[in-house]
Amino acid sequence: MISQFFVLSQRGDNIVFRDYRRDVQKGSAEIFFRKVKFWKEDGKEEAPPVFNLDGVNYFHVKVVGLLFVATTRTNLAPSLALELLQRIARAIKDYLGVLSEESMRKNFVLVYELLDEVIDFGYVQTTSTEVLKSYVFNEPIVVDAARLPTLGPAALFMQGNKRMPGTAVTKSVVANDPGGRKREEIFVDIIEKISVTFSSSVSYSSISSACLCSFADTLDCYLLEAWSILKRLGVMLSNDDEQGYVLTSEIDGTIQMKSYLTGNPEIRLALNDDLHIGRGSVPSFGYSGSSGTGAVILDDCNFHESVHMDNFDIDRTLSLVPPDGEFPVMNYRITQEFKPPFTVNTLIEEAGSLKAEVILKIRAEFPSSITANTILIEMPLPTYTTRVNFDLDRGIVGQNADFKESQKKLEWNIKKIVGGSEHTLRAKLNFSQELHGNITKEAGPVSLTFTIPMYNPSRLQVKYLQIAKKGKTTNPYRWVRYVTQANSYVARI
Amino acid sequence: MAPPVQSHRSPSPSQPSGKGEVSDLKTQLRQLAGSRAPGTDDTKRELFKKVISYMTIGIDVSSVFSEMVMCSATSDIVLKKMCYLYVGNYAKHNPDLALLTINFLQRDCKDEDPMIRGLALRSLCSLGVANLVEYLVGPLGNGLKDGNSYVRMVAAVGVLKLYHLSASTCLDADFPPLLKQLMLKDKDAQVVANCLTSLQEIWSLEASTSEEAAREREMLLSKPVVYYFLNRMKEFSEWAQCIVLELVSKYVPVDSEEIFDIMNLLEDRLQHANGAVVLATIKVFLHMTLSMTDVHQQVYERIKAPLLTLVSSGSPEQSYAVLSHLHLLVMRAPYIFSSDYKHFYCQYNEPFYVKKLKLDMLTAVANESNTYEIVTELCEYVANVDIPMARESIRAVGKIALQQYDVNAIVDRLLQFLEMEKEHVTAETLVLVKDLLRKYPQWSHDCIAVVGNISSKNVQEPKAKAALIWMLGEYAQDMQDSPYILEGLVENWDEENSAEVRLHLLTAVMKCFLRRAPETQKALGDALAAGVADFHQDVHDRALLYYRLLKYDVSVAERIVNPPKQAVSVFADTQSSEMKDRIFDEFNSLSVVYQKPSYMFTDKEHRGPFAFSEELGTLSIGTEPSDGAVAAQRVEANDKDLLLGTSEKEESHGYGNNGSAYSAPSYDASTTAGASQGNFDLVSIDQPSTLHPPSGFAIDDLLGLGMPAAPSSAPPVLLLNAKAAIDPNAFQQKWRQLPVSLSQETSIDPQGVAGMTNPHALPQHMQGHSINCIASGGQAPNFKFFFFAQKAEGSSAYLVECVINSSSCKVQLKIKTDDQATSQAFSELFQSALSKFGSA
């Protein structure tokens, strides 16, 4: 059972504090905050989400810079506590529209009201916004959404896509529009986070020769295996010799729903006809090369409890009565190969004893009708780098490159990249000491973060979204949106 | 409620001190109290908000208590809620004022609006004032019978609150039976769930003193009750499902058919988006199939995909919780996960705590087919700018090398690390190379060549330096410069801060001298002189020992300091397999995250329902000390196989990092330990009672009769198996399963009590009567023991809980058996054995 729940600001102030069992000392919030802040002197390691201090177990999750914390003295299931904290954050967001320190402070009485119903004497009662609605009476005080960073993946749609009504995703489930009338609408977001690791960008032949040199005498079996991997991957190799092949790739997807429909009508979501769940005998991460145009194969998925799958096997439809608030209809995971949206070429070369040159080339491998947003390319440089001069492509607006001296890191920001285009950055590095050894071991890997609206590499689709008619004539607004985000997108050099 | 967290701190300048503001509030509230003017409620809301906001930031606003109560006469539900929140927070510390609130709370408990009734009842029960409990009974009784499910839901938890305030009031009002009724018939699933949680807590706490409560607690695990919950599973909220699933995981099905039925029923829970539900379901699956090896393995295969999906779909915190459990499973059955190794590759943006778990899993699943790829991946991390990660990755590579037979390639990689010339990489690698050489001395040639090139000046970390020095001494013969490097190090003796390094230096110089005397003589002299003068006791003693040894006889010194060594075959595991099993028992709890059984981090009173396993955990394992002694002897005897040899052992005290590897019994010591403690003999968990096949009867009989303690005066009809054995897990399971067949109070010889000062006297004595102690614990005057015995013929087992009060000489016995007919006979036998304790 939970003893206490509290939310701390970034500075460690209590925003709300609720004691349910009175068996943990009152100063726990302060004790917790100090422990997390000074977890490791060098700041290299973060405090784990769960730790024990003097017999008290502390759980915490970070949401938009706020710390949601629960304490207990019992041997509680950690997944339960952490899931609960996340859900409390979600319920609060559903109510306030925007989750932030400001909105929490303005609405703390409402938050207390929620907390009163979510947990009783340490036992979870409900976290469903739908159920909570009948117990909670405070009206949310709306904060200006435009100024605030919003929580959750829905925030991705805020920029770049003019068709979306910007305020909708930050609208409280209980507050009415200024007109007093609720707008009937439903949002279905297909959000895919992709992780890709490209191998070192050495050419095919140089890998194999390197293998031969260093392991020839001892590694016959490994070598054979390495060869066969390379052969299998041959399909994936681009013609460009400097491009690494895909070492691992994964798509973690969510179909997120947020409904503002009155009367809880039933909804049917139709997915791709050729959708398969479970890879069966196909080994994970195996690159069979056959799936270029084939079916969408999910390794595995899970569903929100409101989802009925009665017809899923027949026509790939999910039916559900969406509860109020934001929730994931379905989470899925794919290791089937896909075409990475960006390829990265990196070249780092010595240019004299105290100098080196880096050439970064990034190519957008998606159709030109699609534009990626807020691309950030990062690359750690040798620790003895003192100065970097950049040479950017001309003719592109909204890009800049920077050398973060304290972290010895190169950062290259590009606002927008149109599909099919290619961009290059040249950087001249100056060192404070002479190079020793291999410079490629001292720098890298290159990592990317980006957002690509209206694009999803898995090709999973919502073919239609059907809302059961309730007699009324008004046709609700239906928004089906796709977005792809980099999770861990790394090119080794 | 929101307590004054920072009240003890002097208020910071930016924060209002509160004093002035609070008295302002007080006057304003007072003015409003009687007012009925329109708009009063809005003004009240603002004021109430201020009060609660002060309360949250830690300003003491208890002084406005009476004003708040006066203002509470309102029909505005938001105001009421704020008032309840305030009252709940301050009532406990102002019991006199709390009395003021009783009136309006009781009135609200009878309100027309079920919402208000529920809220008032919750607040009433949350006051936490012990001398007001009499006011709770009536409203609670009504609440449990209320027509509205919200009120019943609140009342069910309210009973538990009352119990914690005053157990006797709660029990006298007969609330638990009422809860039980509600639990088994209420239409509302949340009411049912709240009844279950309240009853679990109440009966577990009562069970230690009340036989009836213990029975009721067992009742919750009975087939009809468990099935009742299973059938209503889908009605419950996801959180209530977790509670029910936890209950089901404790249930022991009769046969495999039942197990499959339950698993089929719960199958779809594995596809739930809530990780807590999935893990609770997995616990049920894992625990139910423990005795069915094949099915158990299928369960692993089945839960793999859902777990991996959970890892990648939630926040990093959630995936950490899931990953910890995956980690536990991978450690238990690495072969099942060996083809999934790519899932354990680290992503650059993951927090360190996630990466660390993944590295552990990568090392665990490495086998012939994937080692090359895993090690290649790990090498990428070593080159990483993230230093802690680089260190961990090197350790991981080393671990893989130590567990593989074909290590050539890995040794190459490790040696390449040394060429990277990064200080932290070099340091970490040196420590590993040393361990590697202890296991694979045949690699010394290759390693020495590379290690010899490392300048000791570039190695600063004590552990790494110690490792380097150890190699310089150990391989003095093959390393050309060894004596001279050592000499250089001895010259800087005074600058060496680490005693560990100085100890190693002494030994290394000594070894080097024994092989290359002429070159090392000077260094040895200097080192011994410096060592004897050293302020550190161990260094001083070791130097003196060497000095005297050398003086006595060089060949003896040689034999002691530098004997021929055998390679270490297995490095000791840091965790015993028994410990691991206990953690596995506590699947889906913090134990898995901390990698410790719960008794190591939880107080006894917070063990929760069905805490029997934990209860056993805190008690020391029955025969521990004698066992430890025997185990130690065993280790001594096995020294030659397992360890480097005595001198090496002596030397190893300096190895902080793997000192335990030397002195602790090795991994396969579990069998050693098992053999040395009869009652822990290799029993398979699932069939504790079929341990002795019929063929052993004759011998058992003989032994049973031949035991010195076999009572001659009044020979009992019942003969016990002298070699009866059960492991603690099986014991726990059985203890939960069986009803109490006999509960008795008896007394113990005062002389015996005197013997209680040695906690192992009684277990030893009882063992003489073929009754084995499984666990024991407690402090004077209360001691608790769990005993196990088995009938010589047939498989009936007897489980005894024995609580001894050493001051009153009273003994309470609880006997459980699967052979009811002989329970009385056994009880007599047990008591006769007990009565002899101390008098013999």
Automatic annotation (TrEMBL), chain A:
One of its GO terms (biological process) is intracellular protein transport. Residues 222-492 form the MHD domain. Keywords: Membrane, Protein transport, Transport. GO terms for cellular component: clathrin adaptor complex; endomembrane system. Its main location: membrane. Pfam families: Adap_comp_sub. SUPFAM superfamilies: Second domain of Mu2 adaptin subunit (ap50) of ap2 adaptor, SNARE-like. PROSITE patterns: MHD (PS51072). CDD domains: AP-4_Mu4_Cterm, AP4_Mu_N. It is found in: Endomembrane system. Belongs to the adaptor complexes medium subunit family. This is MHD domain-containing protein. It comes from Salvia splendens.
From TrEMBL, chain B:
Residues 1-41 are annotated as: Disordered. Its main location: membrane. One of its GO terms (molecular function) is clathrin binding. Keywords: Membrane, Protein transport, Transport. SMART domains: B2-adapt-app_C (SM01020). The keyword Cell inner membrane does not apply. Residues 1-17 have a biased composition (Low complexity). InterPro entries: AP_beta (IPR026739), AP_complex_bsu_1_2_4 (IPR016342), ARM-like (IPR011989), ARM-type_fold (IPR016024), B-adaptin_app_sub_C (IPR015151), Clathrin/coatomer_adapt-like_N (IPR002553), TBP_dom_sf (IPR012295). It comes from the Eukaryota. The keyword Kinase does not apply. Residues 718-835 form the Beta-adaptin appendage C-terminal subdomain domain. Pfam families: Adaptin_N, B2-adapt-app_C. GO terms for cellular component: clathrin adaptor complex; endomembrane system. It is found in: Endomembrane system. GO terms for biological process: intracellular protein transport; vesicle-mediated transport. Adaptor protein complexes are heterotetramers composed of two large adaptins (beta-type subunit and alpha-type or delta-type or epsilon-type or gamma-type subunit), a medium adaptin (mu-type subunit) and a small adaptin (sigma-type subunit). Belongs to the adaptor complexes large subunit family. Subunit of clathrin-associated adaptor protein complex that plays a role in protein sorting in the late-Golgi/trans-Golgi network (TGN) and/or endosomes. The AP complexes mediate both the recruitment of clathrin to membranes and the recognition of sorting signals within the cytosolic tails of transmembrane cargo molecules. PANTHER family: ADAPTOR COMPLEX SUBUNIT BETA FAMILY MEMBER (PTHR11134). This is Beta-adaptin-like protein. It comes from Salvia splendens.
